[in-house]
Fold this sequence. Notes:
6 helices; globular; five-stranded parallel sheet; alpha/beta; 48% helix; single chain
Amino acid sequence: MTRHVLVAVDDSAQSFEALEFACAEYPDATITALHVLDPGDFYAVGGIEGTTMANYDDVQSHYEERAEEILQDARERAAEYDIEIDTDHVIGSISRSIVEYVDDRDVDHIIIGSHGRTGASRILLGSVAETVARRSPVPVTIVR
């Protein structure tokens, strides 16, 4: 029996479909929505093209505020199913951070959208869902 489900969320439609799937299929489990902030995104905002680097702390703060907005949206969507979820965010490599989060906590199932990030980062890093599925110590459900 699944007791603790981790749902990886970003601002993609697929991640919120994964959250809705978790709420519908595991209403009695503890559900944690996790948003991972990739530090590479912080540096990307800085100016290789410009003459000065953006203040890293300001950029990180902006991304953390955006993470809280995404997690608030996740809490509101879960509330539509009359479910109160836990939320958290971490900073690090996305797929590695998800697997480490599961290792460090009593999570027994991961639910992730089939496609979240898009563009060059997805091409260079490969599919986050695929990497999580290969490295996870617990079952993974990929929602399309």
